[in-house]
Amino acid sequence: MTWKIRQKLRALLEAETSLRPEARSRGGQLAVCLVYPNSYQTAMSSLGFQTVFGLLGESPGILCERAFLPDREDLGEYRRSGTPLLSLESQRPLADFDVIAFSTSFEPDYLNIPLMLELARISVVASERTDADPLIIAGGAAFFINPEPVAGLLDVVCIGEGEELIPALASCLMSPQQGGRAGLLSALAALPGFYVPSLYIARYDDHGALTGFDSAPGAPLPVVRACPALERHRPAASLILTGNTEFGDMFLVEVSRGCPRGCRFCSAGFIYGPFRQQPFENVRAAVDEGLLHRSKVGLVGAAVSDYRELGRLCSYIVGKGAKVSVSSLRIDRLDNAMLDALTTSGHKTISLAPEGGSQRLRDLIRKNLSERQILDACDLLISRDILNLKLYFIIGLPTETGDDLDELLRLVAAIRGRVLERARANKRIGEIILSVNPFIPKPFTPFQWCGMEPLVSLERKVKLLETAVRAMPNVRLKVESLRESYLQALLARGDRRLSGVLIAMAKGSSLKKAAKQCGIDTDGYVCRDIPEDAILPWSVIGTADMRMLRDEYERAMGEGKP
Questions:
Q1: Three-state SS at 128
Q2: SS3 of residue 86 by DSSP
């Protein structure tokens, strides 16, 4: 019965508080459905998704609604009843919209794009769509890392950030176009930051290796990422508040974008261009608005600790009688004013990210942290009775050896000793969560040419860590799923031939079965080191300077030998 689905959608909508009603316009001539290929709870925790929703809703002539991946129960209900996928606001079938716009931050969500198109009864393959079908657009950080695995499913991909792209997109969509769907695609391809996959042909040699791309006239190669000046735009902040999300008790506001550090494994330091910070006055104005609705402010950014006014901002929020929350803190940028504010806000757990277990690996990835700095940061937190620490480490980094793992465990033991000493004095037990993730090679980083360590080898390392941690009371090990990490690496490094694999998986096939059906060697994408002269699938877009990345890779390999 479709009334069950509609009833749940209405309940979600009724639980929301809209802070800017104009961002939820209903009077548009062009109907756009913004789709998050994951749950409602995940979507409404995403500041990027909310920002794009606001930008589209404020665009003259555009009606914007939202849709999300149904949960398991509702997915079954959709299939049993034959109901097409519905939007949240009006419970309108997605196929009735003029444009479907996917907002995607993480590669694993690529899996849900063909599933949601199938549920919406829209042709999954882009080449099979006609003028009667909605235009399928996608944007978000995952796409300006590597859009190629879903290139066969999408009509247009936005390469860059919404503040720059949405106004240009809205203007083009609202302008009269000659030549129907094909004419609109050509018009979008001519604009900076818009990638139309059908206008690019991938070439392969007899062995299946990618040898380059051919682009249609008027389609630039590569497609250059759009990067706005943040100070010209109000900070990205919560537009819709709801208790039906992980951060339901917070008002979120972005203080910066990108990262100035340039860690060699992390895309955040390369894909966003220069590190950009919002002026303090802009952020304060957003905070003042948020405090009318929530008593806790969450500060968002890939490098929150590097925000130049962080201590002042935290003090301001606490001075207003509110609480403040931040994500992982940079070990060498712990600010007393910020820590005072976090302590006052009741923080009992702080996350730190040494990433490399040994000094050699931290130098290899350019983390620029010494063991002394790590221990001093822990001492500073412990002295404030913050006895629960979450420590992020990566295993399987290029050139990692058993000695590096031994150093990781020795460092954790040293931190644990400090926590226990303070805990005994305070008669309060502290806990260390050792969060371990496997290295995943990401496009547009210096380590994009490195293969991921095979799963069998990673499994041995995890077992070694599990055995060692069992002998450390008050230390708990959390390891990201190795198989999910493998899939993420596949989608990060893959080319457009993976579209068929995603379609097969959306129909219920396992990765192994889907890859076999499509004749795909997944290890060839995931685990191999890529030669310097190889054409990279993501080179069709110009997110970062490849020569600079290669120089940085060679510098790392030259300096970081075990």
A1: helix
A2: strand
Q: Is pLDDT above 60 for 22?
A: no
Residue 508 and residue 109 in contact, taking contact as beta carbons nearer than 8 Å: no
How many Cα atoms occupy the beta-carbon half-sphere of 77 within 13 Å?
16
SS (H, E, C) 209-222: CEEEEEECCCCCCC
What pLDDT score was predicted for residue 533?
92
What are the residue boundaries of the structural domains of the chain, listed by start?
Answer: 2-224, 230-496+544-559
On average, the pLDDT of the chain sits at: 93
Looking up tokens 């940028």 gives 333
Q: d(Cα 113, Cα 491) in Å, to the nearest integer? A: 13
Q: How far is CA 387 from CA 56, 338, 415, 431, 477, in A?
A: 44, 17, 10, 7, 16
The mean pLDDT value for 451-471 works out to: 97
Classified as helix, coil or strand, 257 is strand
Measured at the CA of 550, the angle between CA 544 and CA 553, to 5 degrees, comes to: 115
Residues sharing a CB contact under 8 Å with residue 330, sequence separation 6 or more, in sequence order: 303, 305, 306, 353
Q: Where does the pLDDT of residue 334 fall: very low under 50, low under 70, confident under 90, or very high at 90 and above?
A: confident
Q: Are 136 and 100 in contact (CB under 8 A)?
A: yes
Architecture of the CATH domain 230-496+544-559:
Alpha-Beta Horseshoe (3.80)
Do 2-224 and 230-496+544-559 have matching folds? Answer: no
**What count of other Cβ atoms lies within 10 Å of the Cβ of residue 368?**
13
- Nearest partner of 525 among 550, 502, 545, 498, judged by Cα: 498
Between the CA of residue 520 and those of 152, 471, 497, what are the distances in Å?
A: 16, 42, 8
Three-state SS across 325-386? EECCECHHHCCHHHHHHHHHCCCCEEEEEEECCCHHHHHHCCCCCCHHHHHHHHHHHHHCCC
436-457 pLDDT, tens digit each: 999 999 999 999 999 999 999 9
Tokens 């579209």 correspond to what residue? Answer: 499
Specify the pTM.
0.94
> pLDDT tens digits, residue range 179-238?
889 999 999 999 999 999 999 999 999 999 999 999 999 999 999 998 888 888 999 999
Beta bridge mates, 288: none
Q: Is 7 exposed, middle or buried (0-12, 13-18, 19+ CB in 10 A)?
A: exposed
CATH number of 2-224: 3.40.50.2300
CA-CA distance, 253 to 267, in Å (whole number)? 22
Nearest to 233 by CA among 190, 265, 276: 276
Task: Write the pLDDT tens digit of every residue in 299-327.
Answer: 999 889 999 999 999 999 999 999 999 87
Q: What is the DSSP letter of 498?
A: G
Strands 240-241 and 17-18: antiparallel
